[in-house]
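During data preparation, a discrete fold description was generated, as reproduced here:
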Amino acid sequence: MSDDPHAPTSAGPDPEEARETVEGAEAAPAAGDQPGPEPAAVAEEPAAAMPPAPEAAPVVPPAPEPTPVVPPSESSWRTPPGTAAPTGPASGAGPRPRPEIDLAKAFAGGVVAALLLKAMGR
């Protein structure tokens, strides 16, 4: 055993040592226990009784496709060459024209939810 506290260790006894300890140990009967008859030996069935499982071919996942990039001819200040190419609908729609309308809708929804919860609590 090493004196180094960070050296790898086995987290328990070696399997051979554990087997010798278990085979060599005799359990003492507790007070009042009568030694009983030995358990009957169980006959082991041969392993050849079951047919071997057919070998399955390993499943290989398809290789991932490389990410498409913006070519230099289509680059801009927002999408420099070599960055991931945008996919799907254009995301350059910009901000909504009147965001205060969305804020008012959210506030009104919160007030309605509060009134419903208050009525349910009565």
